[in-house]
Amino acid sequence: MGFFHQPRFGRPALALDLMEPFRPLIADSTALTAINTRMVTAADFVRAGPAVSLTPEGRKGFFRAYELRMDSLVTHPIFQYRVSYRRLLEVQARLLARLLDGEIPGIPRYRDAMSGASGGMVSKSRGPLAGGNLLAYNEMRLQAGAVDSSAREKLAGARNTGRRSLIIE
To answer: Which domains does the chain have, with CATH numbers?
Structure first.
């Protein structure tokens, strides 16, 4: 089961959906931090034809950056207490379960105070979960400043053609 990702054998669509709002906050931030702090350098990458992969040392550096990010403390937007990103993901999963059970009307947008990146609003009645509307989800990312100006043009074109499944990286 998933809202944004198509269910396929061996692909955890709901887990990918839960992670999606936190991609700019955790995954993108971790990759940038690993490179900017030289935890991962150009020497840590290996080319094999058109593919590029990390060396064992590069993977260690990336996972070090990932663990540092997951241990970072942030303030939860509803409960106003400090939690690690690791705990925040658990809390958001529990809130999604309550949303799906009809106990709460929506999950407020999470905004990282340091980067200004946003995790988006999740609601049963409207927003990205309404019929798997990826266009609405990407519009929220655009409003939060999580996508660049070239994405604005893609979104405008998608709106004009009535598309609902535009994915912007």
So the answer is: 13-125 (1.20.120.920)
